[in-house]
Amino acid sequence: MIQLTRDAIDHANLTERVRRSDCGAVVTFLGTVRDLTGDQVTVALDYEAYPGMAEKKMAEIERDTRERWPVGEMMMAHRLGHMAVGEISVAVAVSCPHRAQAFEACRYAIDRLKELVPIWKKEHWADGTTEWVHPGK
Amino acid sequence: MIVAVRLFARARDLACLDVLEVVLPDGATVADLRRAVAKITPALADLLARSALAINEEFADDDVVIPPKAEVALIPPVSGGAW
User: Most-buried pick from A20, A35, A136, B79 (CB within 10 A)?
Assistant: First the structure.
């Protein structure tokens, strides 16, 4: 199941929702707002999405992940809007029968999300300036 | 036809617009749209060159013909992140 939300991500609830009796392994990845990029200090981030396409791409990633690994249940959540340092911006929780599958499936899902889903972040630096992050300049 | 291109993140800031309307001949491709956008809004040219275009919420290569009434969006590089 996928979710775009403006509310805080409840990672314990997310993890609990993928637990199943036929899955002996649960892996949860959390992406949190980091305070340092090189020597630049971040005070906050804004995340913006192209909502329709972001949901469509996240649903595709869930389907792909389920085709490649025996996923029992999975949850992918991305938060949008303004976040302070330390807050959770993205979470992926996956359950599988065994741990290697769960680690690989979770890794695949978060890597594909970062690569394909149209969600952008704007850094609020400590010096008061802001900057959209568009890698590859 | 008039193609409405949705703009996000720095593209929107550079153009000072949420939606950029571009007049193109019927049968125009994504490459034609790229050239027209760069001409109309030179401030977008650099970012546009390393952005993707989406048609009806799917990534579209330069040779794709833009269908009438398509939902078109400019997708700047996503934040990606180091592994």
Answer: B79
B75 contact residues in A (CB cutoff 8 A) = 50, 53, 118
Distance from CA of A22 to the nearest CA of B (A): 31
Question: For residue A136, what pLDDT is reported?
Answer: 79
HEC assignment per residue over chain A: CEEEECCCCCHHHHHHHHCCCCCCEEEEEEEECCCEECCEEEEEEEEEECHHHHHHHHHHHHHHHHHHCCCCEEEEEEECEEEECCCEEEEEEEEECCHHHHHHHHHHHHHHHHHHCCEEEEEEECCCCEEECCCCC
B25 located within any domain: yes
Interface test with B, best of A30, A53, A79 (most B CBs within 10 A): A53
As for how many domains chain B has, the answer is: 1
* Structural domain includes residue B40: yes
Q: What is the pLDDT of residues B50-76, one digit of tens each?
A: 999 999 999 999 999 999 999 999 999
Distance from CA of B37 to the nearest CA of A (A): 19
Q: Whole-structure pTM over 0.90, yes or no? A: yes
Supply the ipTM of this predicted assembly.
0.92
Mean pLDDT score, A36-45? 92
Domains, chain A: 2-127 (3.90.1170.40)
Task: Domain of residue B6: give its range.
Answer: 2-66
Q: Is residue B83 part of a domain?
A: no
Residues of B in contact with A111 (CB under 8 A): 83
